[in-house]
Amino acid sequence: MAAFHPLRIAAREQLTEDAVALTLAVPEPLGDIFRYVPGQHLTIRHHDASGAELRRTYSVSGPVPPADGPVRELTIGVRHLPGGTFSAHAVKDLAVGDTLHVLPPVGGFTLRGADGGSGGHAVAITGGSGITPVLSMAATALAGDPGARFTLLRSERTAAATMFLQAAAELKDRHPGRLQLLYTLTREERHTGPATGRLDAGRLRALLPSVVPVREVTAWYLCGPQGLIEEARAALDALGVARARVHAELFHAGTEPAAPPPPPATVAGGALLTATLNGRRDTWPPRPAETVLETTLRNRPDAPYSCKGGVCGTCRARLLHGEVRMARNYALEEEELAAGYILPCQSHPVTGTVEVDYDA
Ligand code: FES
């Protein structure tokens, strides 16, 4: 059920000058609803000073979820972004005892089977707050399989701005021979310790074969800003890594314009959108140029969404009938597209009748 639930802040840790970790207590009746797979994210609803509703998405950084049984707490990392209303509020004002309104975890950027239970070697390349989901993925992979190995290559601005530095070091202490931690700093020159400079495609292509057995890596996880993900993908392509082994989660999209919507479908009797949401199936006429999400929200305000920009995947639904054109997709992987999933916030109907299932 895609409904917001009030969760109390049980702990707050200042990670850096501009970032905090917030641990949310999950009350017993919600323990099953908030079960999560490492790598998934939560959507938080907030109202700004004018009363306007904002939704922001944050990945769960831990703890390792119980193998079975309800979840008791979840930790997220929030970094203050320039102009970010909620992130400024979180870093400056939020305290233990405050309540956040939170959607249950979703997202397909999760551990793949080969590295979770068969002695696989996974590699993650992260930038900035992209560490957040990867931290819980690494902790879970290493805790769940005594033969698993994990290499974490982080690109950070400076050592002081590095989120979850201590948590990563503690994970390394727990699995010294199986977790490899590598850092590069983009805005700080050091004579010892982490290397400096940007992780571009050329650098990654030269670096990766010297630190991991590229051909034996079972899964690659890329998480961070668009530039880092594109550079890492280019490097992995050049190294001959199969695209099916590369999984990515974008944290900040670029600003390139989305594709324009297709011309509205014209059908006798008018176009129709049918949607199943939270167990109820309805049909409505879309307005010209509306996305599938816009038509849904006009009639069902409980439809799930967060970024409305094709990045977070919170709105994901399965296309059951008809055809849509997606303007942008930074969230769905090839296998999800092949299974018929779409991002309703980016989808315009191409056919006169379209049916989607938000519960699928
Ligand atoms: S709401 Fe974020 S991808 Fe649709």
Automatic annotation (TrEMBL):
It comes from Streptomyces xiamenensis. Residues 2-112 form the FAD-binding FR-type domain. Residues 271-360 form the 2Fe-2S ferredoxin-type domain. Keywords: 2Fe-2S, FAD, Flavoprotein, Iron, Iron-sulfur, Metal-binding, Oxidoreductase. This is Phenylacetic acid degradation NADH oxidoreductase. One of its GO terms (molecular function) is oxidoreductase activity. Its cofactor is FAD. Pfam families: Fer2, NAD_binding_1.
